[in-house]
Structures are given as C-alpha cells and as structure tokens.
Amino acid sequence: MNLNMPSGDALAIWDIVNHETEESWATVLHRDGTHEVVEVEPMADGADEIWTSPTTGQKYPARWRVTIPELRAKLTVRITGTPGQELALDGNGRMEAAADFTAPTKVMKPAARTT
User: Fold this and answer.
1) Quick one: 16 exposed, middle or buried, by C-beta within 10 A (0-12, 13-18, 19+)?
2) Residue 112 — very low, low, confident or very high, per pLDDT cuts 50/70/90?
3) SS3 sequence, 49-69?
C-alpha cells in the first residue's frame, strides 16, 4: 500500500505472506529526496474487518494496524469505499481499493540517521 504522510514523506508498505513466513517492510521517500527501507511489524495480526469476495471467495481485510518502529509510527489504515474493489483475473483476486489512515504519531526521519 502507498501512503502520503502529513509530513510530506511518502511510504510504500509491503507485506508478503506465504505458507511459511511473512515479510514486511516499507520504502520511505523523504521530502528532501532521500529514501530508506525500514522494517514494518508483520501486518497480518493487525488486519481485521474481513470482507469475502462473492466472485472469488478470497478474503481481504478492510482495516490494518501498521507499526514502523524505526520511524516511531503507528498507523491505522482503512478502506474508505465499498470493499468490493477486487480485480478478479482468471479466478484469482486482488484488492485495489482507496484507503485513508490515521497516524497518532508523526512519521519523521530519525535524527540519528544520516543519508
């Protein structure tokens, strides 16, 4: 998922789940043009409000809690429109939905880091 933060930073958040593992990270593009890759706590446990597609039978969360410790960020991301924004291709589905988020902590570049 991609989020534009109030600070001007842009986040691309990745969460890859397979039968054995879950890998989560974010690429942060800062306003000054620098970027970094940071760890994200696995998102599967923080996903809820599950919607089941009547077309493919796949289940999708409509809300996630995203924690990025290195940026001191805790976000709640929620689909804003109808959850039925699935792209069904060859019997497989993929959710492409508009979302909004709340950020009780400000996402900022850590002061101790140099780029």
Assistant:
1) exposed
2) very low
3) EEEECCCCCCEEEEEEEEEEH
Instruction: List 28's β-bridge partners, or say none.
Output: 11, 36
- Contact criterion met (CB below 8 Å) for 39 and 70: yes
pTM for the model stands at 0.76
Question: What's the alpha-carbon Rg for the chain, to the nearest Å?
Answer: 15
Using CA atoms, how far apart are residues 86 and 110, in angstroms rounded to an integer? Answer: 36
For the chain, the helix, strand and coil percentages under 3-state DSSP, each to the nearest 5: 5, 50, 45
Whose tokens are 């019997």? That residue is 91
Q: Which pLDDT belongs to residue 93?
A: 75
